[in-house]
Amino acid sequence: MFETINYESRAGVAWITLNRPEKLNAFTAVMHKEMLAALKNTGKDKDIRAIVITGAGRAFCSGQDLGGSDNPDYGEVLRKGYNPMIQELVSIEKPVIAAVNGVAAGAGVSLALACDFRIASEKASFIEAFIHVGLVPDSGNLYFLPRLVGHAKAMELAVLGEKISADQAKELGLVTKVAEEEVFIQEVETFAVKLASMPTKAIGLIKRYMNKSWESDLSEVLEYEALAQKTAGSTEDHKEGVSAFMEKRKPEFTGR
After folding, report:
1. Would you say the CATH fold of 200-246 matches that of 5-196?
2. Strand duo 117-121 + 59-61: pairing
3. How far is residue 251's CA from residue 60's CA, in Å, rounded to a whole number?
4. CATH for 200-246, options being 3.40.50.1460, 2.40.50.140, 3.30.200.20, 1.10.12.10
5. pLDDT tens-digit profile of 103-155?
6. Which CATH number fits the domain 5-196, given the four candidates 3.30.450.40, 3.90.226.10, 3.40.250.10, 3.30.9.10?
7. Which helix or strand (DSSP H or E) is residue 48 part of?
8. If you ran DSSP here, which 8-state letter would residue 41 be given?
């Protein structure tokens, strides 16, 4: 079905794997299109309640494949390729996990930052590589990075372009968890299945309005919360949660 990515689903979790290991999963125009299609399909699939994005081989993603055109219009590459992909990823009202199995560089970092959670292998590393080829962080990088680590540290990472380890990324708040290489996939799967068993609509509402909060004042956020709570309060999962609480049992959420 796809040339540059692999897609599979199990236990309510969609696994999207960037699959150009010989190029460290560098992005091409085809990969942009396929990622966008996979994300759109996953967002619409009611049976999918969590999404994992990872890379084949020893890298998560090395960013843009710089081979090909001698004088690319990077603005158009972003507008046609990266930007729609990042916007789709952020708009999906389901939890998205970046399973950073190896090096994440350039736009590979941006992709990870745009996800809701990041679990890193102990072998993973992150590098804002743009500066080393005279470019500017893109694909949402300048939006997400300072929000995750603060303005001063974001400037340091973006301008100096120094590689940081998985443990350093954890200390900075860039990743949720660092896992040993031998159990990395199992740790990701356990985390993803846990998310997939939670109230999906409530998670989606949290994601939607937390994103909006960055450009909103308190009165707007209070209204967003009221709107979200009204919606969440009408879900089957809310009814199940209340019933389980009253009956002193573990709730069984269905995402509805």
Report:
1. no
2. unpaired
3. 35
4. 1.10.12.10
5. 999 999 999 999 999 999 999 999 999 999 999 999 999 999 999 999 999 99
6. 3.90.226.10
7. none
8. H
Q: Domain segments of the chain: what residues?
A: 5-196, 200-246
* Listed residue (62, 46, 47, 48) closest to 16, CA to CA: 48
The amino acid present at 90, given as its one-letter code, is: V
Q: Which residue reads 């804002």 in tokens?
A: 128
Report pLDDT for 69.
63
Identify the helix (H) or strand (E) that includes residue 66: none
| Long-range residue pairs from 152-159, CB within 8 A, at least 24 positions apart, any chain | 157/128, 158/128, 158/130, 158/131, 159/131
The reported pLDDT for the residue numbered 70 is: 66
Query: pLDDT tens digit string along 159-211?
Result: 999 999 999 999 999 999 999 999 999 999 999 999 999 999 999 999 999 99
